[in-house]
């Protein structure tokens, strides 16, 4: 059984999500309940394949003490969490076009994960550290929350614009109410701020512990440190403004705040990946090692 699941590759569930998104696009112009059911089936099949892929990957990495401890696995975990949200939303609200907006974000993370397939894993010392596990999970949860906030904010602006122009919603393109989208954006902003705050504090503690043990630590002037501080400061300021300034709790202001937070997050991720944060070995060496390693060759395609 394990051998069968080990044959699942990134392209398997990536293709499932791509087909599902194509069907969702068709539903916009050619509404069809059967097409929606098929789309849901592909999302479910993709989620099953992706879960199997991550489980097999974790089992293989466990022998090296670094289960799912790489940037590729981090991106795939983010896509997996978003897919769970889409899958649940499709069951709870089958007529609402959540998957139409969220599947592109999932596909984007999967594409990034595929491009990072030759990157080295995180250091074994770091992967086995409890604080680093907290750090990585908090940043993952915060990132997913920012993605959700961005997508709900986008849906809010689109829905608001359609209502202003008095356009019909269309049978195949239904959006949640403005109130629900507003609440979802607000909750995403709160969760992302708290998660990234935990991630930032745990990162500082990891650095201080590393310095005390004479281990390699991230310099305080490193772009990752100050860009993370800027992102966190923006989120805290946005949340404070939204909570203290009552008009900011309603209308388009919440949507604009979460959209701006997404832009800050993308800049932060570009900086983090640009300096290869969290890994020891150079990317070039790891890429050649990954090519020659039979352990990784079959699962990273």
Question: What is the secondary structure topology, with strand pairs?
Answer:
Elements: H1 2-5, H2 10-29, H3 33-62, H4 71-92, H5 98-115, H6 124-127, H7 130-164, H8 178-212, H9 223-244, H10 252-274, H11 283-292, H12 294-297
Helix pairs in contact: 2-3, 2-5, 3-4, 4-5, 4-7, 7-8, 7-10, 8-9, 8-10, 9-10
Write up what this structure looks like.
The chain has 301 residues and is mainly α. It is 75% helix and 0% strand. It is built from 12 helices and no strands. α8 packs parallel to α10 (252-274). The longest helix is centred in the middle third of the chain and has 35 residues, at 130-164. The chain is flat, with a radius of gyration of 20 Å. The two termini are 20 Å apart. 36% of the residues are buried. Residues 281-301 have low confidence and may be disordered.
**Morphology call:** flat
Amino-to-carboxy terminus distance: 20 Å
Query: What number is the mean pLDDT?
Result: 80
Over the alpha carbons, how many angstroms does the gyration radius reach? Answer: 20 Å
Helix percentage: over 70%
Low-confidence stretches: 281-301
List descriptors.
mainly alpha, 2 domains, 301 residues, 0% strand
Write a concise synopsis of the structure shown.
The chain is an all-alpha fold. It has 12 helices and no strands.
């Amino acid at each position: 059984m394990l051998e069968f699941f080990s044959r699942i590759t990134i392209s398997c569930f990536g293709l499932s999500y791509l087909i599902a998104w194509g069907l969702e696009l068709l539903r916009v112009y050619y509404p069809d309940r059967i097409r929606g059911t098929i789309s849901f089936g592909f999302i479910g099949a993709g989620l099953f394949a992706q879960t199997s892929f991550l489980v097999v990957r974790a089992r293989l990495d466990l022998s090296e003490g670094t289960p799912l401890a790489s940037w590729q696995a981090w991106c795939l975990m983010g896509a997996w969490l978003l897919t769970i949200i889409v899958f649940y939303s499709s069951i709870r609200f089958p007529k609402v076009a959540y998957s139409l907006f969220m599947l592109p974000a999932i596909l984007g993370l999967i594409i990034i994960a595929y491009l990072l397939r030759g990157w080295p894993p995180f250091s074994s010392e770091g992967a086995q550290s409890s604080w680093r596990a907290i750090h990585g999970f908090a940043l993952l949860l915060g990132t997913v929350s920012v993605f959700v906030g961005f997508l709900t904010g986008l849906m809010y602006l689109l829905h608001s614009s359609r209502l202003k122009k008095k356009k019909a919603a269309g049978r195949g393109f239904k959006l949640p109410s403005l109130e629900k989208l507003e609440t979802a954006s607000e909750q995403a902003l709160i969760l992302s701020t708290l998660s990234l705050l935990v991630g930032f504090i745990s990162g500082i503690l990891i650095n201080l512990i590393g310095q005390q043990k004479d281990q390699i630590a991230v310099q305080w002037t490193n772009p990752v440190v100050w860009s993370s501080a800027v992102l966190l400061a923006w989120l805290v300021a946005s949340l404070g403004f939204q909570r203290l300034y009552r008009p900011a709790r309603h209308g388009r202001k919440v949507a604009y705040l979460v959209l701006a937070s997404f832009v800050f997050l993308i800049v932060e991720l570009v900086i983090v990946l640009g300096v290869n944060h969290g890994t020891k070995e150079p990317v070039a060496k790891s890429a050649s090692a990954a090519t020659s390693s039979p352990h990784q060759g079959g699962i990273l395609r």
